[in-house]
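Here is a typical sample entry:
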Amino acid sequence: MRRLFVLVSFTALNLCCYAQKVLQFANATTQQFITVKVGNRVAILYKGYLGQVEFVRETVTEITDSTIVVGTNYAEQFPSLVGKPGKNNKLTYKVIRIQDIVGFRKIGLGRQLGKLVVSAAGIVGSFYFLRGVYKSNLSNASTFFISMGTGFCLLAINSILFPENIKYYFAEGWSVQVVPYF
């Protein structure tokens, strides 16, 4: 019986230590709760190394007791992709202290799929719209500027319908805590 108790205690302790963690954002005044798990896409506004405010929009890859990791570190697997130190790399990998977060927005799957559907519909629609333009006797510069205008309109529609800017700020009463998730 004693061995069974030790085994159950050790298993429970092991599960608690290796349980996946989630970020639980809460606003006490409005009674709103937002949970961010590993794999969710988020937009985070945080205080950087020297106190400057920085913005990142990326997928959460790890949550610890005091930090959140967004993006993937490709430096170890593919050093040729990262480039030389000091260069502006397009790959985003950030380790953010949870206490430095100033604002956030959870970007749901519906928002991402909506952007994809609107973009695909815009591409198909612009193909049929511009097919008549290209067959007409317009100059190359005119057709180029019409194509650019169509692309910018599509980009503007996507940014208006599906914004990915910061929605919730900690100054408005939001708080965050790390919660184990079984």
